[in-house]
Amino acid sequence: MDCKYIEQLLERYWQCETSLEEEAQLCAFFNGSEVPEHLLCYKDLFVYQQLQQEVGLGADFDARVLAEVEIPVVKAKRLTLTARFVPLFKAAAVVAVVLSLGNVMQHSFYSDIKEVAAVDTIGKQITAPSVALSGDVTITHEQQILDSLQRVDKKVELKK
Questions:
Q1: Domain boundaries defined on the chain
Q2: What is d(CA 73, CA 45) in angstroms, rounded to the nearest whole number?
Q3: Are 27 and 8 in contact (CB under 8 A)?
Q4: How far apart are CA 47 and CA 51, in angstroms?
Q5: Do residues 42 and 30 touch, judged by C-beta distance below 8 A?
Q6: pTM value?
């Protein structure tokens, strides 16, 4: 074949303007043995295309593609009663932790004040003024708390 004609076909090939017959001519030319020196760099491309046309996809190609494309079946989860209440259990645990920490912090803030008789001092020694001043055992617990709170209020007023 004429070298000028092949160069024109190559130029049209790179611009995607060739027909299938012209591409077949290019493949036949580059698969031949008489390829000029300046066109040898294109020979590998056309030889590769020819080799890939001979290689088939394989017998299991359709099955592999369909296996990748098909949507898998999604099974519904079965929710039990405990699984439905798990968020509620978590919320209850958070509330319990917050309340416990609040109680611990309250005790740590008032641990240095010995005169205040708190409501939750069951079994502890009460150092309220009503206990110290009165020998009468009939003083109620509420009276002891009021006495201790009045004493704390007096200390606060003295500090101001």
A1: 3-69
A2: 44
A3: no
A4: 6
A5: yes
A6: 0.36
